[in-house]
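Blinded run. Sample ID left blank on purpose so nobody reads anything into the name before looking at the predicted structure. Input follows.
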Amino acid sequence: MTKPTDDMELSFEDALGELREGIDSVDNQLVRLFSERAQLAKRVGQLKSRYDKEAYVPEREHRLLNRLMDSNPGPMPNGALKQIYKEIISACLSLESPLQVVYLGPEGTFTHQATKRHFGMSAQLMPRKGITEIFQDVECKRAEYGVVPIENSTEGVVNPTLDAFMNSDLAICAEVLLPVSHHLLTQSGTSGGVNKVYSHPQAIAQCREWLQRHMGDIPCIDVSSTARAAQLASEDPSAAAIASELAGHIHGLEPAHRNIEDLRGNMTRFLVIGHQDLPPTGDDRTSLMFALKDQPGVLYDALAPFATLGINMSRIESRPSRRKAWEYLFFIDLVGHRGEENVATALKTLSESCQFMKVLGSYPRGLMNEELATPAGPAEGAS
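Blinded prediction complete.
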């Protein structure tokens, strides 16, 4: 290939300079528009404060994000657009007072990631050691919202979260669907010399086949969280952790092997809990718990109206009630809002078969396109 002439190089520089001037002009316009949006959001916050209304409105945010993604002409991916607007919304809310949100810690857990993704970087995020403590903090209004895991697509339901709902009057305000990728993290970024692997039991279970193939007889040690595993590995050069890249970054670890989960598409669902009763958005989920009378065919009779009325039940679980031997509580998720006529009719019919029934919340469904596009490097992103 021949060396470009000076004219060709100059032409390239001129063209590049013109494009960069265009980007600078757009950036200046964006800053002005962001400031204008922030001023409007601040006035909305003042109006809400005057009338004692909630600052954070999940259904409004859900509609806004859906509208923006529906109107997105590209080439920016919807996932990236959504996260940009999550941060804009978070920053605008913080102009009045940052939202206080508790989550299942420590810092670097997948729950921490889900909380950051939903509430943005401008919220005040506070880690807690246990799910019960999160419920207590929100109930006593030491925090406005809490984020807890509810189920994983490969390992199933998180029972402590179900148990916490039995004795709580909190409502589910939103859900977050987080793609979960596990990495084998070490101090050196290699797995040579590793003689132990730390992680949470669920993470170990989600990587069991990979561990058997690649780590042989090296013992896996259960710890309280993947973030705790990363912390322990950061203190021991002979240890590895199964954890997220965020946890590795926080504790100075490097990935020795990436994406070691046995099943791709591994997803964890998290619930945002608070005190709000939300109106319909047109794309909602309702969660409830109930105990049935002890008589033949009662479960069939209780659930039949949902099929008759065309309501999709997306999950059903049972748990011991802890009040009486062999008495069980059922937890179900269904598509729709309890304010919709068919859902309200089904719930009324169900209640007639129940000893006890409580709707845990109707809330916007989590968006399935939670995955973000791979971020560009600094040079490409800045152009």
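Unblinding after everyone has recorded impressions. Residues 1-7, 369-383 have pLDDT under 50 and may be disordered.
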